[in-house]
Automatic annotation (TrEMBL):
Residues 1-49 are annotated as: Disordered. It comes from the Bacteria. Residues 1-16 have a biased composition (Basic and acidic residues). It comes from Xanthomarina gelatinilytica. This is Methylmalonyl Co-A mutase-associated GTPase MeaB.
Amino acid sequence: MAKEKKSALEEKKGIQEPESINRSSIARIKSKRHKQPSTEDLISGILQP
């Protein structure tokens, strides 16, 4: 009878997986994004002489 080999790699309950996204990177990207003007702002900009 063949002996089953037990893997050294196994998941343990209660240990959370590390985050795959860096929170500081998200904050940096969000701060550099330009705010889109509203429809009213665009229309008023076009209609102004």
